[in-house]
Fold alpha-galactosidase.
Amino acid sequence: MSSPRTPEPHAAWTVLRRDGVAIILAHPATGLPAVLHWGADLGPLEASDLDALDRATSRQTTPGTLDAAWRLPIVPEEANGWSGRPGLLATRDGRPLYPRWTSRVEHEDTGSVRVTATDADAGLTLRIQVELGAGGLALLHHELINDGAGDVEVAWLEATLPVPKTADHLTAFSGRWTREKAPLTTAMPRGTTTRESRRGRGGHDAPWVTLASIGAPRNRRGEVWAVHLGWSADVRHRTDRVTEHVTLLGAGELLRPGEVRLASGASYRTPTAYFAWSAAGLDGVADRFHTWMRARSQHPRTPRPLVLNTWEAVYFQHDPARLEQLARRAAAVGIERFVLDDGWFLGRRDDTAGLGDWQVDPTVWPQGLEPLADLVHSLGMQFGLWFEPEMVNLDSELARAHPDWLLANPASVPSPAGLSFRTQYVLDLAHPDAWEHVRAQLSALIGPLGIDFVKWDHNRDLVEPVHDGEPGTHAQTLAAYRLIERLKADHPSLEIESCSSGGARTDLGILARTDRVWASDSNDPVERQDIQRWTELLLPPELVGAHVGPSPAHSSGRATTLSYRMATALQGSAGFEWDILGCSEEETDRIASFAGLYKELRELLHTGTVVHPDVLDPALRVRGVVAPDRGEAVFTVCTVSSCEEALVERLRLDGLDPERRYSLRLRDEIGTARWGWVTPAWVGRTPVVVPGRVLTEVGLQLPTLWPAQALVLHLTAV
């Protein structure tokens, strides 16, 4: 039997602690730091405690000769005995680089640490930034610098954190247009697995977020580890479940061959990867993301306006007189932001022409947009306008004047038959003249018209995106970011919504520059239940556009009641996508009532904690928002099909204060739901007062709601 060996010597440890989460890094005498722990806050730890943690979790001691790393560094590589996916893959002049790092640590503050690692022989510097932000959300990014002669080509540089081997389930996301963010949970796959998106804009089937969990993830209980990449283009999510090590969870930018080549002195900074650990299920993950998002300096602080967007009201049929009439009706029912959608600019009678020519079409708007903008403002509403700044039609003055400004493979312009990709192309914003052209045209409208809001659309994938003969997605994405940043700097009060055929670009990269996302082009409230639920896994509801559309829905043909559509829209940043001039008097009154209810409740809905009580019946979708002081809450109970049993389960209203009593009432301003012939005793005009502990531990007996019906429950502490 061998005697105990001394562990590899460590220069120091770093402990980051915030909001119930801790990250502990060990800094060896050579090489990169290793993550000893990411998860629950372990409390104050002395150096002896950290040494004990290191020893207690170590798999090997010197001079052991296992063909595997003793402990994985934060950027694992083959030289560490790692058989999974390397954290960095790069070449210099076609030859592989195998760095041997020497690192130093800088503690910038109690919540972050910066590691600078160098390898003089390889001619590389690697900077690693690890931060615990508000809510205990972990932020990680790398920067690689070429210090040597000759170009360095980066194949990938990815962020990873370890999760326990007991995390035996993996949840990934996919989807399609009008059905974004569909989760799929499987057993944790063995080996290295990746989920990729190559659409140049995320995509409706983008990885979005990857979750590791002990057992299938639940809404309110169980440990979950999550990663999201704040990047609005091609991404790769990864898991490494190899036999010798803890599991790694991570993500990074997907780079095409030759896309990032670093000349001497140049650097590549990765997008930020966001990691969340929760001991309280999926809602705990959401709470960490929501807390961090709401703590940002640029997060919207003003009440989220009730919107009317004109797309499903008029489509391309723009008639100034009718749109002015629509604006007056909107103001009369309580709308606060009027958005003119596609169809207002030069030659734009359908979706085959005009993109790139951001000038008001005088044949449709002979007096320009000033009269409409002035009217909207005079009625007390904000004025918004639709643009698709990153796109161009070949049938446009811009494309005819500058065919060289297309981000495309020249062999595919025009696209071969059957490959038209919406008859539109991507404008190469990495071309300085193209970027300035778009900036100048948009600014020439935003300033003079007093535009308060831009709906920024992006309606096609980047297919064969060639810039100066090389892959152009990375440069295009950075140029789009710079364009948004410049417009907001030049017009400080401007708000921008990220729309990409609905929810194809809703990541934290685009939301570092925008103020809202359009969750989906589907306004079908049945489909919206799950689209919005999974969008708010990361994004707080005040950032998620949720509109009432007409019935039947234009994206599905499904007919639903107005009350159900309104209850669904109440779950986000609410609005309408509807020709309300055609509404009956009863519908118009209901719209006005909804506007009043939204304005009454939005402070709670857009600042509170979102909860999703676990329910058994697959027909039920239950969602609540509880005030920070737990003095008030709103729950929506919706069905997407018929309930399985005649006696529906009791609903436990999570998040309430068990020591307080709550007055419970139905908010029926938007209409009354329909259910079977048995009505629970608490339903009625007179509010019922119930102890919070009863509502949380025993629950509330639900009626047997019919399919596609919704209740809005309002609880107030008494």
